[in-house]
Amino acid sequence: MERRILLVDDEPALRYSVGEFLGRVGYDVTAAEGGAQALEALMASPPDLVISDVMMEGMDGFEFQRRVHALTGAGMPFIFLTAKGDLRDRLEGLRGGADDYVVKPFEPEELEARVASLLGRVERTRQEERRELDALRARILSEVSERMRAPVESLSVRLSALLSERYGDDPDLQADYLRAAADDAETLRELAESLATVADATSAEMPIQREPMRVAPLVRAAAAEAAHLAAVRGVRLEIACGGLLSASVDREALTRALAALLEVSVALSPPGSEVRIAARRAQEGGLDVAITDGGAAPADDSMEPSEEARAALDLARRVVHAHGGVFTARLEGERHTITIWLPGRVAKHIGRRT
Hints:
Layout: E1 4-8, H1 12-24, E2 28-32, H2 35-44, E3 49-52, H3 61-72, E4 78-82, H4 87-95, E5 100-103, H5 108-163, H6 171-201, E6 211-214, H7 215-233, E7 236-241, E8 246-249, H8 251-267, E9 274-281, E10 287-292, H9 307-322, E11 326-332, E12 335-342
Helix pairs in contact: 2-3, 5-6, 6-9, 7-8, 8-9
């Protein structure tokens, strides 16, 4: 697959020459003459790597770098390409998160080598993450398989007893066995959903199909999926989301991710507490969604974090990262808050410019 590079420089001759050279050696290059234009290009089609000048009018390279990392969660490979060779400038760029620094004048082959080296390191990191996910999947599948064995055997015994009319006309005894069989069936349903979550969380690719939509129905749908567990746990769900808030997201993937985060928060909250999900426009543009749990559950609570919960958190992170967003968590007192930020303009009305 052809790697995409975003090249940002206010010198037309350099944009042309570097773009032509990198294009000839196999890269898909998008050129921008300044930071504002480059940010629009990045939002439209995120590149695999950014090469940027430092001294540019309007928005210099350091400010552009900070905005790129705000949009991508510091996950975008970044190379500075500039005539400034002062040590302080290099340190500022590297401390800001740049991966490399090439000083003009330079040989095109040197730039190509640095690009290839950086992209190679990124790919090796991703391969290691995939290996870790594969190992996680094997552990979870083994655990879920073991947990499914007991309810399957129990359900089979109870249904066989009812079908053979072993309990005659005793309605109370029959009702007890039916309720127990229903509980076993519900346990199996939850385990089957856990397996589906594992499959999603460990898939090699997560394609995102964005479209503009209202956020409130999406948040309500996620809360509805977590409502059963909340009722069982005796935990209240609170939703805070303006009805006119909209965003360009993948409805199915984001709903599934938010539902997974809500279920984890509910599972870790004590009975009688409240789990809150709130969505709002972010100050820097985009969408903020925060999920706050109800505080620490009792030490002897059986609903402790499981492999399934960890897989759900991993799924949510992957959905957020696939959107180009940022996933953070913080502790305030005894309550944990998970916040996801998704990039892009969030309007009050779909289709209306703000």
